[in-house]
TrEMBL record:
<dbReference type="GO" id="GO:0046872">
    <property type="term" value="F:metal ion binding"/>
</dbReference>
<keyword id="KW-0479">Metal-binding</keyword>
<protein>
    <submittedName>
        <fullName>Hydroxymethylglutaryl-CoA lyase</fullName>
        <ecNumber>4.1.3.4</ecNumber>
    </submittedName>
</protein>
<feature type="domain" description="Pyruvate carboxyltransferase">
    <location>
        <begin position="9"/>
        <end position="276"/>
    </location>
</feature>
<dbReference type="InterPro" id="IPR043594">
    <property type="entry name" value="HMGL"/>
</dbReference>
<dbReference type="GO" id="GO:0006552">
    <property type="term" value="P:L-leucine catabolic process"/>
</dbReference>
<dbReference type="InterPro" id="IPR000891">
    <property type="entry name" value="PYR_CT"/>
</dbReference>
<dbReference type="Pfam" id="PF00682">
    <property type="entry name" value="HMGL-like"/>
</dbReference>
<dbReference type="GO" id="GO:0046951">
    <property type="term" value="P:ketone body biosynthetic process"/>
</dbReference>
<keyword id="KW-0456">Lyase</keyword>
<dbReference type="GO" id="GO:0004419">
    <property type="term" value="F:hydroxymethylglutaryl-CoA lyase activity"/>
</dbReference>
<dbReference type="InterPro" id="IPR013785">
    <property type="entry name" value="Aldolase_TIM"/>
</dbReference>
<comment type="similarity">
    <text>Belongs to the HMG-CoA lyase family.</text>
</comment>
Length: 298
């Protein structure tokens, strides 16, 4: 049954990681720290601050440790980072992140390009990483990429998504973020995938991570909201793409997501004016041009 009853929605800000990882321009460490510090005071409850993937793969985030150690931590905000394996986890633990995120793809081809391993060979690495993180007292989030389409394989089987999602949950992963990595999902497809997946995984264990290649991110979010999803990833100003998915445009803009949620009387706890101020800070400090529809009327 579709449900748009007003409720608490959790917004996961991925701009400092997913937003910046694909930028050709290296954002200075102190500017990243200043931006995250301002985001921390917007009411956003969760910020993915960086990635501990080896710098040769993501040079834009080569300063992961410095950023994680340099930010001012606000009580009530979760500060998370992406980790690829136990070596990355060791660096993340040393920097004392609150939560670690592991990742793989629902598409075999994309997983090979992104991780250089098959899905089957990736599972043991993620399980080792998740167990070590849990043993260290950290929670674990999981990302599943190319849920709605792969740049090489096209449409991805829902069965693949179910298999990968269930395996991550068996590892002790707290929540699975389902990624529309290349932004090809449309509302009918989102409904179809979730209608099947929710027979196997509870809605409270899922989050949605939409990209906006065809301008469908907000429409797709509405469908997910109607189907009971309450956690959504977004990036301030729509920053971000995937370095292993050519042509992928940016993430759903946090400002646009907030406009939708406010209009539906959903509760986020986010202060709109502070959010816009943090966007201006990033633009002023870096010269990056942020694109979102949500600031056009303000």
């Amino acid at each position: 049954m579709l449900d748009l009853t007003p409720r608490q929605i959790r917004v996961v800000e991925v701009g400092p990681r997913d937003g910046l990882q694909n930028e050709a321009q290296f954002v200075p460490t102190q500017d990243k720290i200043a931006w995250i510090n301002q985001l921390s005071r917007t009411g956003i409850p969760y910020i993915e601050i960086t990635s501990f993937v080896h710098p040769k793969w993501i040079p834009a985030l080569a300063d992961a440790a410095e950023v994680a150690k340099g930010i001012e931590r606000v009580p009530g905000v979760t500060y998370a980072a992406l980790v690829p394996n136990v070596r990355g986890l060791e660096r993340a633990l040393e920097a004392d992140v609150d939560e670690v995120a592991v990742f793989l793809s629902a598409s075999e081809t994309h997983n090979q390009r992104n991780i250089n391993k098959s899905i089957a060979d990736t599972f043991p690495i993620l399980e080792e990483t998740a167990r070590a993180a849990l043993a260290a007292g950290k929670t674990v989030r999981g990302y599943v990429s190319t849920v709605f389409g792969c740049p090489d394989e096209g449409r991805v089987s829902v069965d693949n998504v179910i298999r990968v999602t269930q395996r991550l949950l068996e590892m002790g992963v707290r929540e699975i973020s389902l990624g529309d990595t290349i932004g090809v999902a449309h509302p009918g497809q989102v409904h179809q995938v979730l209608d099947t997946l929710l027979n196997h995984v509870p809605a409270e264990r899922l989050a949605m991570h939409f990209h906006d290649t065809y301008g469908m991110a907000i429409a797709n979010t509405l469908i997910a909201l109607e189907m009971g999803i309450s956690t959504f990833d977004s990036s301030l100003g729509g920053l971000g793409g995937c370095p292993f998915a050519p042509g992928a445009s940016g993430n759903m803009a946090t400002e646009d997501l907030l406009y939708l949620l406010d209009g539906l009387d959903m509760t986020t706890g986010i202060h709109r004016d502070r959010l816009f101020a943090s966007a201006r800070l990033l633009e002023e400090r870096t010269g990056l041009s942020l694109c979102s529809r949500g600031r056009n009327g303000n």
